[in-house]
Write a structure and sequence with these properties.
single chain
Length: about 140
């Protein structure tokens, strides 16, 4: 939330939790972004570390006129990884067309492997989404 605030966006936590963790709003024009934060704790592997995230398939498939932005962030060595920010329709496309992740009990299970400023899932390079705040530009006053 603090990252969005420093970028000039207003942040709100929904009173009723139906899937969105936070709403991010550009006050001057009313632009609204829905955000779902997914966290995990890392497991160390030789030169890499990894984490597992779960996304409910019914949420992933239910794209409205305001798509969800998923933020995947991993706790590693007493700190946080850089966020991997993927818009809902892009993640759905990766799942349907690139076969990213695996399905178990109604969830898309994603195993991210982090190494040398790169992130991969199911051998698909997701590095372009690391700290991708494209849909959250800095708002100048």
């Amino acid at each position: 939330m603090s990252e969005f605030l420093t970028r000039g966006w207003n942040v709100a936590i929904p009173e009723v939790d139906i899937g969105d963790d936070i709403f991010v709003v550009q006050d001057d024009n009313g632009t609204l972004r829905r955000v779902q934060v997914k966290t995990s704790t890392s497991t160390q592997k030789q030169q890499t570390y990894k984490g597992q995230f779960n996304v409910p398939l019914n949420q992933l498939r239910n794209i409205s006129n305001i798509p969800v932005h998923y933020i995947f962030i991993l706790r590693h060595n007493d700190g946080w990884s850089k966020p991997v920010i993927i818009r809902q329709d892009y993640l759905l496309d990766h799942w349907e067309n690139s076969k990213i992740g695996s399905v178990y009990k109604g969830n898309l299970n994603l195993h991210f492997i982090y190494s040398d400023r790169k992130v991969k899932c199911s051998n698909i390079d997701l590095s372009q989404y690391i700290s991708d705040f494209t849909d959250f530009p800095i708002i100048e006053e």
